[in-house]
């Protein structure tokens, strides 16, 4: 009985680590990318998503990345993870001057 309980506990821990992203994923997060929630000063700004280039309006729950002295915005939270794993893939394709509207995928 104790052995089954121990095994069940280990399975729960393993699943928790995988869900939390600590389970040996092949993706690595770039330590220079600092993800955060948008600030009050950024609310309502017209920008472009750093991953898909779609126009967006910054909201109070928008995920923002600070990287090498610049700020990058995302239209979906999972895109911030893509960016933080490989920012070099995206930084050169962002349109200059920001977006013009709040469309979404």
What labels describe this entry?
2 helices; 105 residues; 3-stranded antiparallel beta sheet; two-stranded antiparallel ribbon; alpha+beta; disordered C terminus
Structural write-up:
The chain has one domain (32-105). A hairpin with a 2-residue loop joins strand 4 and strand 5. 19% of the residues are buried. It is globular. Strands 1-4-5 form a three-stranded antiparallel β-sheet, covered by helices on one side. The protein has a two-stranded antiparallel ribbon with strand order 2-3. With 105 residues, it is an alpha+beta fold. Mean pLDDT is 75; it is low at 16-27 and 98-105. The protein contains two helices and five strands, in the order αβββββα. It starts with a helix and ends in a 20-residue tail after the last helix.
* Strand order, sheet with most strands: 1-4-5
**In angstroms, what separates the terminal alpha carbons?**
50 Å
Structural class: alpha+beta
Poorly predicted residue ranges:
16-27, 98-105
**Overall average residue pLDDT:** 75
Number of domains: 1
β content, as a range? 15-25%
Largest sheet: 3 strands, antiparallel
Total count of strands? 5
How is this fold's topology laid out?
Layout (H helix, E strand, L loop, with lengths): L1 H18 L14 E4 L8 E3 L6 E3 L5 E5 L2 E4 L3 H9 L20
Antiparallel strand pairs: 1-4, 2-3, 4-5
Provide a short characterization of the protein structure:
The chain has 105 residues and is α+β, with helices and mostly antiparallel strands. The protein is 26% helix and 18% strand. Strands 1-4-5 form a 3-stranded antiparallel β-sheet, with helices on one face.
């Amino acid at each position: 009985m104790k052995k089954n309980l121990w095994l069940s506990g280990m399975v729960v821990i393993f699943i928790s680590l995988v869900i939390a992203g600590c389970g040996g994923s092949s993706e690595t997060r770039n330590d220079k990318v600092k993800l955060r929630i948008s600030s009050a000063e950024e609310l309502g700004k017209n920008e472009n998503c750093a991953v898909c280039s779609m126009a967006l309006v910054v909201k109070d729950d928008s995920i923002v990345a600070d990287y090498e002295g610049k700020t990058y915005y995302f239209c979906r939270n999972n895109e911030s993870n893509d960016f933080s794993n490989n920012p070099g893939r995206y930084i050169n394709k962002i349109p200059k001057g920001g977006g013009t509207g709040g469309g979404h995928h």
